[in-house]
């Protein structure tokens, strides 16, 4: 009997609420989280705090906790559970969000402090009397401009930089001020800056259990922009003063966390310079620096990360979480398309999976006694929801049903997981989404999507774009070729210094596998992808004519011109044997898709954002102009004022327009 449900539309993005930042109260009785919504009239996005009971009569009955058209985000419980601190722009929507505190048992929110700058992180001290913040102050000229309406109206006159890294996709042009540590007195609201330097940033700060010390990460080389992996772990007195360096291996690091007994500091990191492909490990070191750090995951070939690609709310990377007795650590791992929670003893033994298979765990926190775990979990066919798990029994309860009213009336189609062999005999994983009303006796036009990164993964996580294309009558297929995460370090390293080689082979093996499926029309196959996926799309059209249409989005096309023009600046050369183009021009050109564009015959739509600072729009412009000159059917769609992440967080009307352009292009060539 035909389904009475409708199919998903591009416009459903307006109706979709995005859940994030789930945090359980210290007593384990309540969970606070954030819900973001879109106002279709203004195209603005707003977020408020919601609370759900984790037990009792109101279990699974969330209630809205803050109200209004503003952005309330990043809720954090006070240690006694009586208050929630959060960031909000409710005071002045044109200025960076400020710290607010709201009583949990009733009362209005109050602004804690007025800081002229952006707050990137914050946490309560164990006694609940202070809040530690990471703050990047506004540049003096920006503060002055905000106070003068005429100067504010005229805007920036010029930008003068002496540092290498001066822009960041998603943020824009960076201020001259660096991120430093501040402590705010909760009772008086008085803020106090405890670190300062014109060159060094202090990031990922965390309190010691007794509130007397603060651990943080910083790059204290003479020019951090020239030595991005020289990140060190420091501890400073909470009142300020000279920080103490703890000896750790050189390499990327993030999210330090004190053990409850104060004896240890854990952090995520890898060892070495310019080796992005290495697994992100879980390290511990004595807080007094008396022993060398050790990677508890040495020999396990696991990558610590919550990252799995989706387009409706990104996963949140949580810091290493200690058991109450300081004997064990809980952390996320990206593996085989899932982002799971794992645990390991501090001696490196008893590695276990806690939960998360066939899905992605985002934010997770434990009650103070460790008996109850709250977490946000996303699945292939369901957006983020909040769950609680009783650690003693393993019983899991779902607390939210966000977007249920929307999706209970939508037929998404069906999905399947597939494993197949690559050209090198390697095992590869992919997924197929079949359209609503799928008829196994028919052959369907098929679209292969390629993920960005490349050091990430597709997986068991909802992708609105894929379901939208499936709703248009396509089989949509996506896989994880070599060069990405989730399958060990060698899999990730396979294309290091060689984009377009092993990854191309794996994608062609995926195309062959799909062509062998009885429901796939191999004469009507299309290909598309964004960022690195856009790179591979342009690479593919220069190396094969098997696809009838292509869509390249926010692509990399020319490594030579991308060097120094991306927000990643010069460090892209680390993927090219760490040589600049003027040192090895041949290698840069060899791995640039634009070098092979002369062989392209595939009709290709080029989509790019005009304020993309990661892959500058000139990368897409080169592809469009080249195809046009070659007489290959092509069109160029440009989105003003949007960063690299348009498909995930851009203005909703532009996201809708983007999807409609993609569908229109594939319809023209795969259904004609």
What does this 3D model show about the protein?
The chain is an alpha+beta fold and 672 residues long. It has a domain of 225 residues: 3-Layer(aba) Sandwich (Rossmann fold). The protein is 15% helix and 33% strand. It contains twelve helices and 38 strands. It has an eight-stranded mixed beta sheet, sandwiched between helices. Strands 1-2-3-4 form a four-stranded antiparallel beta sheet, with no helix packed on it. The chain is globular, with a radius of gyration of 25 Å. The mean pLDDT is 97.
Could you outline the blueprint of secondary structure elements for this entry?
Blueprint: E1 18-24, E2 30-39, E3 44-53, E4 63-64, E5 72-77, E6 83-88, E7 98-103, E8 110-111, E9 117-124, E10 130-137, H1 140-147, H2 149-154, E11 167-168, E12 172-173, E13 179-185, E14 191-193, E15 203-207, E16 213-218, E17 232-237, E18 244-246, E19 253-258, E20 264-269, E21 281-286, E22 294-295, E23 321-322, E24 328-335, E25 338-345, E26 352-355, E27 360-366, E28 372-379, E29 382-390, E30 396-398, H3 404-407, E31 414-421, E32 427-434, E33 444-450, H4 464-471, E34 475-479, H5 489-493, H6 502-515, E35 520-530, H7 532-541, E36 549-553, H8 559-562, H9 585-590, E37 604-609, H10 618-630, E38 634-639, H11 646-649, H12 652-670
Parallel strand pairs: 33-34, 33-35, 35-36, 36-37, 37-38
Antiparallel strand pairs: 1-2, 2-3, 3-4, 5-6, 6-7, 7-8, 9-10, 10-13, 11-12, 13-14, 15-16, 16-17, 17-18, 19-20, 20-21, 21-22, 23-24, 24-25, 25-26, 27-28, 28-29, 29-30, 31-32, 32-34
